[in-house]
Amino acid sequence: MISLGRAIGLSILLTAVAQAASPSASLQRIEPVDIVDLREVTDPQISPDGKSIVYSVLRRVSGAEHDDTSLWLVPADGSKPERALVIGEGESGNARWAPDSRRIAFLSSRANPLDSGKQRRQLWLLSLDGGEAQPLTKIDGDIADLRWSPDGQRIAFLASDPLPTDVRARIALRQDAVEVDAHPQMQRVWIYDFHSRSAEPVTPANIHVSLLSWSPDGARLALRTAQTPDINAHWYRSDVAIFDVADKRLNAPIAKRAAAIAPAWSPDGQRLAYSEIFDDGIGAEPRIYDFRSGKVTSCGNNYPGLLGEMRWNNDGRALLVHKFENTRTGFAQLDASNCDIKHVADAFYVGPYGFSASADGKTVAYVGSAFRQPPEVWVMSGKTQKAITKTNPQTESWQLGEAREISWTATTDGKTIYGVLVTPPGYVPGTPVKTVVQIHGGPEWAWWSGWLGSWHEWAQMLASHGYAVFMPNPRGSDGQGTAFAKAAKGDWGGGDYQDVIDGVDALIKQRIADPSRLGIGGWSYGGFMSAWAVTHSDRFKAAIVGAAPVDVAAMGLTTDTPDFITGYFGDPFTNHAQLDAHSPIRFLDKVQGAVLILHGEQDTRVPIDLGEQMYVGMRYLNKPVTMIRYPREPHWMHEYEHHKDVLTRVLAWFDANL
């Protein structure tokens, strides 16, 4: 039997040969606006009876304050095309099925008749038996997430407390000086009761809740909690605690440093699976807590990849777990008794979270993609997997590059390093072409075997314009286990950079990359690595430095996630010399190549003054540099026109310099 990997490789080879022999003149090159106009499929939720899937579709709108988000419905067997379920003004998402598979609760910011037409994100209910969606709440503020109780009589949801009345009054008078951290807006659990048709907050006012999960008997909630609502606490300092619903009591945490993965109850309610990050914040592993014994079992520490979201099998003996290895994603089975991990299926998968299963566990819905297909709703039933939606049919007329997983050997220690290579349409093997190296963010993140086309993933657009795009997963990345992910600790620009260069050398040796026309770029850590490359090598003629921590020491004292930097480099005061040694800003006099700096003005993760330091420094040294600032944008950009601008500048910059 041909493995999935070999079948993919054979398909790529045959397609490449066919295209090289007779490239189709009718296919169009991919322009920046084409990528930005792609609609984004998210959050597929299969009904408990396994018959239907509701999911969200996001469409970015030029000049609009918010994206257009709608809900769609499709039969799980793909027997009928998808159809719009909730569309119109406002954002609608976070759809969740009632246990009866006939009702859907969701969040929407459409005009709310219960609240004088105000457009705040509230809880709505839609019956598939007919009729219009009806609002259930009118609380002061936006709702963030929701979960049905097992009996279908209550809905637990998350909402932030509003600012105190006196604070809002002062803000209205422009008496709006801000004392940092003085008025934290905690996110609390509320419960809507269908009998009383009312909702009330139930968790303490001094605890911030980010995730929730009902126990099978509906008596308890497993919560991911933090002492403060800031992003640093969200990622690095959150606990798992059990909340008793009847007496509204939050018990002492059963786990510290919980990862942002929803806790999963065993069918009998006697065990809880969750994921916990390591003390340095790098890597995570599943844990299983037994309520009867109080014992915690740690699983997967030696697993050569990354384990993500989990769901118990109905027999309570094992869990279905999302996995990521090298560049490929899929599903594994985790034995709850001995932590054995067995392969279930490979899957073209987007992101580490987001699958749902029918009540009997036989059908799984997830967001999947392929090298030549943007994300869609996919279904896995038994050994069969297929896409059942067709949200972006226009891509069938695009000139798409040929993508494949590749590997090479690190010169530092002989380790096998993996990545993805995308070559231009009709590429003839053995022909060196202009090549862009795109580095992912993180460092603990990774490129994947799937669709690579967004404002942040440039591969398909650049390939359409004649580029080879090399996307490496150097040490520090996910996909090869915890030790590999931790290998970049204290060494940004060291072994990780050499892994990238080794990959470039391998492509040059294979006569794929043209050594005289090399570019590099990336966002966040990818921007750091791009800045490092042009301060430590003359090989790259052009670089794009996106939202990059070019001064690691300064970032440690200005970022909203200080635990991130200390996890990699320790105390920024004690280890200041080490942080300086790994900061591209200290080597600007050695820059060779033209540099384009891109940065959001409201970036609190990597504040814009870091980008400005590099720009002003290079100007002072008469180095070729351009900087673009994006108003209103945080670290991860959102607006339609800015997405288009990033892609337009990326293409133009490499065209001009390579």
Automatic annotation (TrEMBL):
Q: Where is the signal peptide?
A: 1-20
**Any single Pfam family the record assigns to this protein:** PD40
Task: Enumerate the GO terms in the molecular function aspect.
Answer: hydrolase activity
Describe the location of the Peptidase S9 prolyl oligopeptidase catalytic domain by residue ranges.
Answer: 459-657
Keyword set for this entry?
A: Hydrolase, Protease, Serine protease, Signal
- What domain of life does the native source organism fall in? Bacteria
Q: What is this protein called?
A: Alpha/beta fold hydrolase
From which source organism is this entry?
A: Steroidobacter flavus
